[in-house]
Design goal:
Elements lengths: L4 E8 L2 E9 L13 H4 L1 E4 L6 H11 L3 E4 L2 H6 L2 E4 L5 H10 L2 H11 L3 E4 L1 H4 L4 E2 L4 E2 L6 E5 L11 E6 L1 E2 L14 E6 L1 E5 L5 E6 L3 E8 L2 E4 L7 H13 L6
Parallel strand pairs: 3-4, 3-5, 5-6, 6-16, 7-9
Antiparallel strand pairs: 1-2, 7-8, 9-13, 10-12, 11-14, 14-15, 15-16
Length: 246
């Protein structure tokens, strides 16, 4: 059964703590009860794959409560999960499995917990990656492909600002228009098997999926935490998203 969450500001030990979510599934919280904290926060998944603190700083800037954690039980009990990452697919998936995090991610996805994938996290939610010939998590059908560009002037990795064009409506991209740009750093890109799982596309010598999603899972190849105000709006929208698909 899915827990119920509401916006709240509460006091614990004399300190006022504000945020987006508090677990209210029939329980009553008091100043002496700290067990709510995992339910209350967004879990940022730590699997030794970089850019965790930049995501945390962006959420802090927005006043959204979060915790960096590699503990499967905390990931399972979080109100929402952010799955970022920078690095190689092979070593990342190996770490996820060794620590039991892959099982936790499958569980929260099945349960309907809102999940946001970022960069490498977006690639390894697919079934496989060409990088290191890696079998990935398989939350969305498809694979991560390496750029093969015919234009010698276009460098790999694709690095810098680029436009993102939504191809279907999604609450996390409601603010995006044809002028909106986000920051990218990647040599591989997601290629979902089903067209309906593509939420937005970007041009870089070819058209590729720059945002994908299914049910309570949304994932971006770009880095919202490094994309200025436009990226902050994605994170803000995620903090308010209940996991419904469009």
């Amino acid at each position: 059964m899915r827990a119920d969450y509401s916006f709240a500001a509460i006091r614990i030990g004399g300190e006022t703590i504000s945020g987006e979510f508090i677990h209210v599934d029939g329980g009553v919280l008091s100043d002496s009860d700290h067990s709510f904290s995992a339910f209350y926060m967004i879990a940022i998944v730590d699997y030794q794959a970089g850019n965790l603190t930049s995501v945390k700083r962006a959420l802090d800037h927005l006043g959204i409560r979060s915790r960096i954690t590699g503990v499967p039980s905390e990931i399972r009990s979080a109100a929402k999960v952010i799955f970022p990452g920078v690095g190689r697919a092979g070593s990342a998936v190996q770490t996820l499995r060794a620590r039991g995090i892959s099982d936790a991610l499958h569980e929260v996805f099945r349960r309907g917990t809102p999940i946001l994938g970022i960069c490498l996290g977006t690639q390894i939610i697919l079934e496989a990656s060409e990088e290191d010939n890696t079998e990935c998590l398989g939350l969305i059908q498809g694979g991560a492909r390496r750029f093969r560009l015919s234009d010698p002037l276009l460098k790999i990795p694709h690095m810098g600002w680029n436009h993102v064009r939504a191809v279907r409506k999604h609450p996390l991209l409601a603010h995006v228009n044809e002028e909106t740009q986000f920051y990218f750093v990647h040599s591989y890109y997601p290629e979902p098997r089903l067209q309906e799982d593509i939420v937005a596309v970007t041009e870089y010598g070819m058209r590729f999926a720059s945002a994908i999603g299914r049910k309570n899972l949304f994932a971006t190849q770009f880095h919202p935490e490094k994309s200025g105000q436009a990226g902050l709006e994605v994170l803000r929208a995620f903090s308010r998203w209940e996991g419904e698909s469009c």
